[in-house]
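Why should sequence recovery work at all? Because a backbone constrains its sequence more than one might expect. Tight turns favour small or flexible residues, buried strands favour hydrophobic ones, and helices have their own preferences. The token representation captures these environments compactly. In the example below, the structure is given first.
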């Protein structure tokens, strides 16, 4: 195995336990890795504006050297004086996507800094705004809302029982301008074609003079798959889905509720 110089973790189902916390045991393992000169960070589909609201609750602000948000589209690396949002999704593309799904029982959600804009107010928009500590607002007239603007991503929110309809509909059209994936039981997302966690990680590696072979990543779901495949060491959580496990280099012995990340770091990465 190549020398690991950077560890990046997905949040939900990976670094966070099911109570949305990071245990003291895990924090101690992370600090041991940092004491050995290994950088640590998170790579999440969440907005980093949301992460900034929650990182003190998780008590990991001082442990994070790198933050990747919006599935790699947003990067904060304070040591390199980098805080950037890359490849936002053009408003005209958002309108195309919404038109394709608008007859289904779904809601559409856009993030703009610390405000969550929804097509309509429902349990999903309320849940997302509350979990991210965001203000909630309505898009209003869509043509006006999207004209000449770009946003990090477009989320489609629906009941889990309706997700198969969303997936089926998504398969009926495509564009060279954007790509999509299911990112949760009730969430499906569209983003610019250049956005991926692995592309974000590659940017961080270039800043520090690392290669992807120097990176270990942990994840559990579909939006982690590209980084699990392209990092030097891609580790899927044992609680992850079977497809993601099959694409990974290794699988943790323990779940996110059993300090799976920490125990893997201690056993396989610490010197």
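From this structural description, the recovered sequence reads:
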């Amino acid at each position: 195995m190549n020398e690991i110089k950077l560890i990046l973790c997905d949040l939900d189902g990976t670094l966070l336990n099911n109570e949305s916390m990071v245990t003291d045991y895990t924090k101690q393992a992370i600090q041991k890795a940092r004491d050995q000169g290994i950088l640590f960070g998170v790579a999440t589909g969440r907005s980093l504006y949301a992460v900034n609201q929650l990182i003190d609750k998780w008590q990991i602000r001082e442990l994070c050297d790198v933050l990747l948000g919006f599935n790699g589209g947003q990067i904060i690396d304070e040591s390199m004086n980098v805080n950037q949002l890359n490849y936002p999704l053009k408003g005209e593309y958002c309108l195309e996507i919404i038109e394709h799904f608008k007859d289904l029982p779904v809601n559409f959600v856009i993030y703009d800094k610390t405000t969550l804009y929804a097509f309509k107010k429902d349990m999903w928009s309320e849940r997302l705004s509350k979990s991210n500590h965001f203000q909630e607002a309505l898009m209003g007239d869509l043509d006006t809302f999207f004209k000449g603007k770009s946003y990090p991503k477009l989320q489609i929110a629906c009941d889990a029982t309706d997700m198969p309809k969303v997936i089926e509909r998504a398969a009926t059209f495509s564009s060279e301008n954007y790509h999509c994936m299911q990112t949760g039981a009730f969430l499906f997302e569209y983003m610019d074609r250049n956005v991926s966690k692995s592309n974000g990680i590659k940017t961080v590696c270039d800043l520090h003079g690392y290669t992807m072979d120097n990176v270990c990543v942990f994840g559990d779901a579909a939006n982690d798959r590209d980084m699990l495949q392209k990092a030097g060491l891609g580790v899927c959580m044992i609680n992850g889905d079977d497809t993601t496990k099959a694409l990974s280099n290794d699988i943790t012995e323990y779940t996110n509720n059993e300090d799976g990340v920490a125990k893997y770091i201690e056993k396989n990465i610490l010197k």
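A few observations help interpret the result. Residues 184 and 221 are 8 Å apart (CA to CA).
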